[in-house]
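> run fold Glycoside hydrolase family 3 protein
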Amino acid sequence: MRYISLFIGLMCVCTLSRAQSTTYPFQDNHLSFEQRVEDLLHRLTLEEKVALMQDVSKPIARLGVKGYNWWNEALHGVARAGLATVFPQPIGMAASFDKDQVLKVFNAVSDEGRAKYNYNISKGNYGRYEGLTMWTPTINIYRDPRWGRGIETYGEDPYLTAELGIQVVNGLQGDTGLKYDKLHACAKHFAVHSGPEWNRHSFNAANIKPRDLYETYLPAFEALVKEANVQEVMCAYNRFEGKPCCGSDQLLQHILRSKWGFKGIVVADCGAIADFFKENAHAVYKDAATASAGAVYSGTDLDCGSSYRALTDAVKQGLIKEEAINVSVRRLLMARFRLGEMDDPSLVPWAKIGYDVVASEAHNKIALEMARKSIVLLQNRSNILPLKSGGLKIAVMGPNAKDSIMQWGNYNGTPARTITILDGIKAALSPGDQLVYDQGCGLVDGAIMKSAFNECIGEDSKGITVAYWNNKERKGAPVTTVNMTSPFNLCTSGATVFAPKVALTDFSGTYTGVFRPHQSGQATLDFYVNGMLRVWVDGSLVKEMKTNHGGRKATHNMKVEAGKRYDIRFEFEHNNGDALLSFDIGYKEEMDIERSIAKVKDADVVVFAGGISPSLEGEEMGVNLPGFKKGDRTDIQLPLVQRNLIAALKRAGKKVVLVDCSGSPIGLVNEAENCAAIVQAWYSGQAGGQAVADVLFGKYNPAGRLPVTFYRDTTQLPDFEDYNMKGRTYRYFSGKPLFEFGYGLSYTTFKYGKPVLSNAAVKAGTPVKLTVPVFNTGKLAGDEVVQVYLKKKDDENGPIKTLRAFKRVHFNTGQKMDIVFDITPKQMEWWDDSAGIMKVVPGEYELLVGGSSRKEDLQAISFKVK
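> ok
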């Protein structure tokens, strides 16, 4: 008995010791995640479960569960959270055709994401854009060049999108062999979602052929679920065949859960559940309770918004059973445990990643490397490129030449430094070279802004006087007062305060000055803001804005008279994330083509940095200018003012090199005639200017390829709202575009030998080996993107050809290599109309091999599937 009593006593001590550190089993790190989830789930009240199903998940103090904000972004770098490495926009990364480089980028992105999270939780911060769940990548098919959000995608081809999307997920989520995940990625927007932006909350993508659904819109999502084990899928705003995508049993239950076996979280796009019942949206449910119940039963676990608050009432009204709520909460809790967010950071290896990786020199190099690899050389008449420096007289023109914010794209972070195209060219010049800069025109109008900040007078001297408070209400005396004597760009990125003694968050500032213009005309107050802003002129409120999702541009135009006094005052308050406030004031001058040409008349070459901007194309924007509507485009041509200026330069005898900055295909028909060379630079990130200069001056041999078709004009496009693929993308477009999918030039030349297949007759379900001899026949080393397309000979309704393999390979001068592809059964799948699925279908096929999708660039090799 004495030994039994001693044993019981020891057990009690051990139990007490464990109880002191783990009050509940769900807090016990030694248990499996499944056990911990079940324990916690059954301790929650209905109200607590519902609170966990919203993107702003409130803490449950009685159980020691912290709050968590699910919304974070990492489209091409950690976004909307201040300092970060800014890589090229995804459409630019797609142009690299380089899976290894995309993986390298997102390994860096996930390092920065974890580092920022580690820093934030050390400060007790659990807000938006501070968590571990990254709502990226966007893998919708860029089916129409008018869609503004196409800039977020990996192009128009399902296979390319899938292959690169897998690398994004692998880079973000980290080593799958570890107990804890590094981050969680999110495949979005499931599944038929690619514009228009203006009606996305009410649009019904209907009457879509099953073939188009399974052959075009679904493959990338399936690949990320089955091959990359993506942990989240975001459903889209629009309806699919009459039902909101976030309430579609076909998409979420039949396809995603049942057919593909997805076990992760489905998150609604922000406000998508509210669209179910709003009168100006889908309006297919009567209220939030019925809509929320329908969404949960369809498989949507997390609401980005407030509609799911009604789930408590929905249960009480009998609209949904609590067991259905449990299914979603179980998935949400599992994700939090897998990320280590519910455990002490000391137990999570990823918690050791320090803040010094953020915007590090190593990541800067990756950003430059990706920017270089993304650039596509579209035209190079008389081999004008690369430029020969040494005595070169070069003119730099165009609205994008020194616009750093344009290069950041959308869904972006804030880099420590951005190298503009003008900066990059200046740095590349040799002694004896001469450079002249003249903007020439705006993006879509002739107005050019020139700073007049020196015409502002503060309280005691020139400039703007600023008073700061460490509260948003301006209570008490200011903590400091400073004077700004030049245009400013203030940002709290990297724990940088707006001014000494000013806090990083929850602060406010009042900016005052007197503007005495030296000339009459139109003056412009130009802002870039993340926070809350109000602007007064002579005591009248003229501008008010609040940002929630990163920086936005804002302007106010006013008529002024020379010598007259104008009292300027604006107020700024921190809102969320890093605060950002840029300001300048100046005059808008109308473009003068003759004056601009006179200024560059002695130049040997004009580099015109034109195109468009993320301020014009993107997600559901307020832009309604000629050629643009709510972020979409109604005309794909280069804006008229740029076309006119380039044409005038050509008439004046100037050799023009167009550097086109855009996230979408531009109809460069006129520019193909008027420019000696065309370089597609996309939105190239923080190092874009250096990358462009490296290509222009031959330090880097371009090898990017177009991930989208560059059409000639909108007459080549079907109805924007028709989601069927007939006539769309290189796969179904039978006309002659300006530049084809997969196209891009190099400063060297490549020759293809005859491709060889291991078998001319292939048994269904077995792989086949393809060998492609490739020679670098030029005088420079460079990369070649070897592309393999599949075609079924007797399928009149199928794709003309469709990408099935690619490799980006570096060749030294004169080098020959045999490029080997192992074509798997998955890569040989074709649409089986009788079965209604993609499968290996017997028949006669061709593999088309070459350096682009152009017919003249391809060699065909026939084979048979038995």
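The first helix runs from residue 2 to 21.
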